[in-house]
Design brief:
Radius of gyration: 17 Å
Strand content: 25-35%
Structural class: alpha/beta
Helix content: 25-40%
Number of strands: 10
Strand order of the largest sheet: 5-4-3-6-7-9-8-10
Length: about 260
C-alpha cells in the first residue's frame, strides 16, 4: 500500500490534475488535459519485466529515458521491489509530476527523476550503467500530423529532440553487461528501429507487434534487445481486444501480472 499524501498538500491533485490508479494500489499524478498514461506504457513495462522474469533476472538499476510522468518506471518498480530507478525527462512539468508520484507511492528512496535532455553532455555521467533501460521514443516527425497545443503532448509525440536512434544509442552506451533494453514504437517504423538497434551494437533483437483489435493492423510494436550475436526474433502478435470487444486472455493475464485488475 502506498503511504499516500500523509497530509502533505503537495501530494494532493492540484488544479487541472488527476491522481489515477496504476499497478497494485499505486497511483499516478497526471494533467487532465496533458500527456497521460497509456496502454503503450503498460506493454513496454510488461515486455521488459517478462524478459527479465524468463531469464531469472532481478535488475538492480533501471534507467527510463524520456520518462515523462513516470508511468513505465513506476510499473517496473512495482514489479521488482528491490529495483532502483532513474528517470530522465526534459519537460519540467512532467518531471515534477513523476517526482510527486514517487513520493506519494513511498519509493523516493529508490526512485529519482533527473531534469534534462539525456542527449545533452553531463545529464548522464559516462560511467553510469544500468541493468534495464526503457524508453518510449516519439512516433512522429515534424509535418507528419497535427501538433497538439496541450501541455506536454507535442514533445511526447514528435521527434523534437530526436527519435528511436537517439534513444537506442544512449541506451547502448549506458547498458550494463548482460542488461536489457526495451522500448515501444510505431509498427510502420519497425525496420528502422531494428536497424537503429543493430547500429547501436544491440544485436540480440526481439519484438512483438500489438494489435489493439482482432483483425486490424498493428499500430505499435514492443521491442527488446541485448548485446550479443546478431539475430532477430519476431514473436506472435499480441492481441489486446478480440473481435467482440472483450480483452484477450493474454492481455488479461499480463494486466494481472503487472498489478492491474483483469
Amino acid at each position: 500500500m502506498p503511504p499516500g499524501d500523509r497530509g502533505d498538500p503537495a501530494l494532493a491533485p492540484g488544479p487541472g490534475e488527476t491522481l489515477d490508479c496504476l499497478g497494485g494500489h499505486w497511483k499516478l499524478f497526471q494533467l487532465r488535459s496533458g500527456h497521460r498514461y497509456s496502454t503503450d506504457d503498460l506493454l513496454t513495462a510488461w515486455f521488459a519485466a517478462s524478459a527479465l522474469g524468463e531469464a531469472g533476472q532481478s535488475p538492480g538499476h533501471h534507467l527510463d529515458l524520456g520518462c515523462g510522468i513516470g508511468s513505465v518506471g513506476l510499473l517496473v518498480l512495482w514489479r521488482f521491489p528491490s529495483l532502483h530507478l532513474l528517470g530522465v525527462e526534459a519537460q519540467e512539468v512532467s518531471a515534477a509530476l513523476a517526482a510527486r508520484s514517487f513520493r506519494y507511492n513511498g519509493v523516493s528512496d529508490r526512485a529519482a527523476v533527473r531534469l534534462g535532455d539525456f542527449r545533452a553532455p553531463g545529464v548522464l555521467a559516462p560511467e553510469e550503467r544500468f541493468d534495464l533501460i526503457t524508453g518510449s521514443p516519439p512516433y512522429l516527425v515534424s509535418g507528419e500530423a497535427r501538433r497538439s497545443d496541450r501541455p506536454q503532448r507535442g514533445p511526447c509525440r514528435f521527434e523534437d529532440r530526436g527519435g528511436a536512434a537517439a534513444y537506442l544509442a544512449t541506451a547502448a552506451t549506458h547498458l550494463a553487461e548482460g542488461g536489457l533494453v526495451a522500448w515501444v514504437h510505431a509498427s510502420r517504423h519497425r525496420e528502422a528501429n531494428l536497424a537503429a538497434a543493430a547500429a547501436a551494437g544491440l544485436g540480440d533483437l526481439e519484438w512483438r507487434e500489438v494489435v489493439f483489435r482482432e483483425g486490424r493492423e498493428s499500430v505499435i510494436t514492443v521491442f527488446r534487445a541485448r548485446r550479443g550475436p546478431y539475430r532477430q526474433r519476431r514473436n506472435p502478435a499480441l492481441v489486446v481486444r478480440l473481435d467482440d470487444g472483450s480483452w484477450s486472455r493474454e492481455y488479461r493475464d499480463l494486466r494481472r501480472e503487472m498489478g492491474f485488475p483483469a
